[in-house]
Request: fold
Amino acid sequence: MTSPASRSSEDQSSLKTIVQKLLDEAKRKGADQAEAAANHDIGLSVTARLGDVENLEYTNDRGVGITVYVGTRKGSASTSDFSDGALVEAVGKAITFASHTAPDEHAGLADEEAMATDIPDLSLAHEWNLQSADAIDLAIECENAATEYDKRISNSDGATVSTSSGSCAYGNSHGFLSSFPRSSHSISCMVIGEVNGEMQRDYYYSTSRDPNLLESPKSIGEAAAERTINRLGARKIKTMQAPVVFSAEVARGFIGHAIGAISGGAQYRKSSFLLEAAGEQIFPEFVRIEERPHIAGAMASAPYDAEGVATIDRDLVTHGVLQGYILASYSARRLGLQSTGNAGGAHNLLVEGNVEDQQQLLSQMGTGLLVHELIGQGVNGVTGDYSRGAVGFWVENGEIAYPVQEITIAGNLRDLYLRIAAIGKDQDLRGGIRCGSLLVDNMAIAGA
Reply:
């Protein structure tokens, strides 16, 4: 039997062969420059609800895309068919599309000298040889742990176990051609609690590239149940101004609005509330945000970006001052700058904490709102106006007093970021932004 490591090696080799065929065909058809990417991922997902299998899905996804540049005209095409005829057809379509697009002096591959030459092994692939029956057992175990946690857990939206492993390859006409394996695994659970006719729902999940680092199904189910029970008896509160603590899982999204605003696309389109803000104080002096693309096994690690540009460590924010933008080659040229190796997005942003944990933030806040969930999309990326529905807890004397719901928190992000009073070291490691709980010293809260 072929081992997982051997299958991964074979898959990477096949994908690189396909990418090279596309590049050769693009050159033969007259493209001045070309780039291609291919991927193949195999996955399994099981959802169990109330002890029965509700969903069982096997995925075998693959695809390839080719972009050609004829002069400064660009054309792209993609296909999931890896046959030679389909690859030739995709290149032909891309060449045809390029003949119909407008010239763009900024179009083209990333600079050749920026290509990654040393490809580190970042431990991004850890296969989970999980059979369907075992996945079902894990999902049922997780859900049972939740439903048996407390008699007030009255219903379930199910527990899901998912695993995916595969490879991706990228190459371009600079001669760059590379690939790496990857994996992603998760267990999640959502349940419903009820008391005196009132119902609340909450969830919990664990995700990792390495299945051995996932939290246990039992602990995930119990966490989902505990979070649900804690929300029972939620009240409305009156409209006021008060300090707000964002829990770590929502704080990363709060910081993420700044990351979107400093992306190259938002900058050159002039659609950012942080327009041309490099060199400006956008956070308090204690705030530092680092990009660390090469953390072994991290969910947002990458040896190179989507254009083959080497990813590097850098500080985005130092002493609260924005150091630069998040740029791919196109946006960099539009701004007269250099690519920062961020085609496809940022890689592992670490928001440094200055206090120990959430409890210390609550003690520092004294009285105010602890936000555990945000609802709606009320963020204006151009003006920075921020208005989100919120669910969480009212805090008095540094301790949680009771759950709250049906409220809205609001402000302007330029002002709110400067009002960050402290950030915890309790970082949520499940995504690309690693941020702990954070305290904003004053926000508008709309309630009853």
User: Anything to note?
Assistant: The chain has two domains: 4-231, 240-446. The mean pLDDT is 95.
